[in-house]
Design a protein that fits this description.
Elements lengths: L3 H14 L3 E4 L13 E5 L2 E5 L10 H12 L3 E3 L4 H12 L3
Parallel strand pairs: 3-4
Antiparallel strand pairs: 1-2, 2-3
Length: 96
């Protein structure tokens, strides 16, 4: 079974290979409870991803961040696989 940190590493590599500005938030308590795993700037758009694997679900704090981000015009998504992440990011890059 893939772990969330493995998915995060693969997503970060994909982003780095495309020179996309990314902040990788570690769950160390310093970033604030519920802060998305990846915060990106893509073609001038504020984009956040909360990565999940298996049966993982977002916490109430993560859901609250989603509401704040979307309410302010940002994009928030929660992919479970690298393929899902890439598909969403390619759509954002193409401005779909």
């Amino acid at each position: 079974m893939i772990h969330e940190r493995d998915l995060q590493s693969k997503c970060l590599k994909w982003l780095r290979d495309r020179d996309i500005y990314t902040i990788n938030t570690h769950g160390d308590g310093w970033g604030g409870k519920g802060t998305p795993d990846l915060t990106m700037c893509v073609n001038g758009r504020f984009v956040c991803a909360e990565l999940k694997v298996g049966a993982g679900e977002m916490s109430s704090a993560q859901k609250l961040h989603r509401v704040w981000i979307e309410r302010n015009g940002g994009i928030f998504f929660s992919p479970y696989t690298l393929g899902e992440f890439i598909e969403k990011m390619e759509g954002i890059i193409k401005n779909e």
